[in-house]
Amino acid sequence: MSTSPAATLRQVISADQIQKRVRELGRQISDDYRGQTLVALAILENSFMFMADLARAVDVPMICTFIKPRYKQVEQGEAPMLEIYFSHELDIAGKHVLLIEGLVHSGVTSDFLMSDLRARRAASVKLATLLDRQSARRVPLQPDYFGFLVDDAYLCGYGLGSPEQTSRNLPYLAAAS
């Protein structure tokens, strides 16, 4: 999707709607983790704005960090397979981890990362996402916290988009018209 000046975008979720929902999620997460320290682990790039606003809305002690999974296309037999590499230096053993996504689509990446975090002996692992596209799910995964259910084919803005796009900085979510 091009977001050149000629591209037409229609607002799907307003900045006010996003901020209201993020505050609600912040209160819910704060209530769930009252008296504990939370390790917030945001997946780049699509979650950076959501993470920043959510961190300000949560009122329990919070360690904020980011990860960027790497993907590699490999051939295995007849069908291509996607491998997800994940590494971070943060010691999470015995800690409560909140994995933060901008959009959960197929769920494959989130499911893999949550399994990896559990294997690293986290006390608990939960998933928060701004957008949940359940219709595209390829694994049985349900976010613990989500902002909005969406079906739009492609959304941009509020941190979401592709590396070559100029619309990640929009304060709202938009789709191509």
Ranges where pLDDT stays below 50 over 5 or more residues in a row are: 1-6
Any idea what the shape is?
globular
CATH topology: Rossmann fold
- What is the total domain count? 1
Q: How confident is the prediction overall: mean pLDDT?
A: 87
Structural category is alpha/beta
Order of helices and strands: EHEHEEEEHEEE
Number of helices: 3
Count the beta strands. Answer: 9
**Helix share bin:** 10-25%
What is the topology, as strand order, of the major beta sheet? 3-2-6-7-8
Distance between the termini: 11 Å
Beta-strand percent range: 25-35%
Corresponding CATH architecture? 3-Layer(aba) Sandwich
- How can the largest sheet be summarized? 5 strands, parallel
**CA-atom Rg in angstroms:** 17 Å
Quaternary structure state of the chains depicted: single chain
- CATH class equals Alpha Beta
